[in-house]
Amino acid sequence: MIKPAALIKQTSAGGVIFRRLANGIEIALVSVKGGKAWCLPKGIVDKGETPEMTAVREVREETGLTGRIVDKLGDINYWYYIKGENAKCRKSVSFYLMEYLRGNTADHDAEVDSAEWFSLNTALEKISYRGDRSILEKANARLKESEA
Ligand code: ATP
Description:
This protein is an alpha+beta fold. It has a single domain, classed as Alpha-Beta Complex (Nucleoside Triphosphate Pyrophosphohydrolase), CATH 3.90.79.10. The chain is built from three helices and seven strands; from the N terminus they run ββββαβββαα. The protein has helices at residues 51-63, 120-126, 130-147; strands at 6-21, 24-32, 37-39, 42-44, 65-82, 87-103, 114-119. Adenosine-5'-triphosphate is lined by residues 12, 39, 42-44, 76, 78, 80, 91, 129, 131-132.
């Protein structure tokens, strides 16, 4: 008999970290799956952490960049299947807009294949998942508003 998949829930948090340069705004993305997918940095909310703490920590670990939260952008949800555990996971991720303070993308951790700064337009072209794109579009709108 085929065992039905278990249902599990995961809560993560992450960020859109930005910097203003003379020729425009840049944001940082990370690549995974051998460079095939480009995503916003994020990770699981650990016990005792607020989503804001997780977002700052995960952005720092995955991109090498330290930022400070300036706004909440919103939440996304998706399902994925964890093969080894025969489990279906519903993941919820809260995203924050973060101003870059310091750090270098060369210092990303081994959870990702690379971390890179991109112009907002290039990031919108590169980003792999619809949910991440909707968050990046919100960030784009907020950043353009604050420039006006
Ligand atoms: P975390 O970064 O929260 O610790 P993880 O790296 O273990 O999590 P995910 O990044 O959620 O796991 O990836 C699990 C599966 O979900 C992968 O197959 C991935 O391709 C897919 N995935 C990742 N981000 C999204 C998204 N925004 N929308 C839909 N599917 C996604």
